[in-house]
Amino acid sequence: MNWRVTLLILLAFVGGVLVLAAIATRPPSAPEHEIYVNGNVLTMDAAGAVHEAVSLREGLIESVGSSEEMLALAGDNTMVVDLRGRSVLPGSIDAHGHFPGSGQTVFSADLNSPPIGEVTNLSELLERLIRLAQTRTDGWIVGHGYDDTLLAERRHPNRDDLDTVASDRPVAIVHVSGHLAVVNSTGLAILGIDSATPDPEGGVIVRDPRSEGGRRPNGVLEETAARAVWEYTLDLSAMDAVRMTTQAAAEYLAVGVTTASAGGMPTTVATLLGFLSQLNQFPQRVALFPLFEEVGEQLLDGSVALDSFARAKVSAPRVKIIADGSIQGYTGYLSTPYHVPFKGDADYRGYASVPRDMLFQQVAGLYERRIQLAIHCNGDASIDDGLDAIENAMQQHPWPEARPLMIHAQMTREDQMARMADLGVTPSFFSAHTYYWGDRHAAIFMGPERAANMSPARWALEAGVRFSSHLDTPVTPMLPLQAVWSQVERKSTGGTVIGPDQRIDRLSALRAVTIDAAWQVFMDDVIGSIEPGKHADLVVLSDNPLTAPDIRSLKVDRTIIAGATVYKRL
Questions:
Q1: Which of 46, 86, 185, 480 qualifies as a cystine partner to 92, CB 3.0-4.6 A?
Q2: Domain containing 179: what range?
């Protein structure tokens, strides 16, 4: 059974149950009138105004000002909340992630290493998979989040390792980057991959050089070669799908995320999210980016529209093209070789997931049909290709309002930032990379000089390029204040400042997870700042993030969506 079959079952057999559940568990309703006083209301408006109080009425922001001014609006049905010096901000907007992927722990073994998880060697990794196999006795055995560079063995697990978990069931584990997978022998057979199988375009079936002819797949699949795995590893029961989504939603609410991102989603997941949103199974708004390789042809011939994926609180502002891979997976596409040669190849630069000429065709086609796009580009060679494709499309089909989005844009050079300004390109930086991988970028992947300018938010500010910040969850945990802290401090897990010249001020970093993130998904007119008439999507923090000694230590006391409190710590 695959996702498509599961979805049909969900719709046909579980729909009625969920309708009843939705009726029984309607989302919290917003008070008719609620006033928050005696705090710091960080509006994130164009002037960066800060007020004492905010008035909410029927799910919308009514007014901001002093406590006295807001209390003057009170009536018999007004609820008043004393902030006692705490801060109110717009709810955090996940600029790019893979909601509801963080909920995959309901069916998948967590194989992350510190500081995210606890796995430090292959033995521990395999033991977790064996334990999962004992509790989930049917279907694929799935793990996620392993990082070969943090395992004691400093290598990827291979098919033979995973065969020790199960020889009669398929096993698949996904790299922390999300761009590689490892599959056991049974899994490879199900995928139809053997010694004679050619590498797919934009991907690699890694081989064992010691095998006959050096052709035996060792189980590691890169980029497009790994994508066939997803259909099988997401072979979920209807209840697992619901549990995954509701768990992810709860995690996001607890850290103040009011708008989630489902970037590069298969159509089946997109349909599921829309369906569950209609049934009020999660309260967040979701910005969904369908995957071009699945729906691009239909978008370009007009048989499918982006709006067809929108439903309830799920919008579909862009389609996503994955142009290269990840730096930490050695699949990001660079203009100059990796710092430590990959497999001893001093000339290795990674590779494009989409050939340059094909990328040009795809982008031009989207511009012609006025379909907004997001391009995943990590390495600077991929960024060159993406910018060239956008420039070509602009020349053929001028569209100044396109706001093309470049996801990650991790190794953007200064000259490329100038081109982004000229072309109207807006990047979304995976800013927490400096924390989670900064030390290894400097030592292994990029070298100190290039690592110092990864996720170059300072260059963006200086060039007048509007940008956002994201965590790529579930690649890293959903912690918006971590993203803010990382752009301000740029400290690694080892305590090293990775590129002090790229640090930015706190207000700019906060805007990158609020109003500027809203702007990138064309929702800045309704969310992202605390201004009259906008949705009351807010978060109450334990202290002021502009002045607190440690941004990451702040607690989310309340999360509010459309005026309704959907999470409350205090």
A1: 480
A2: 108-233
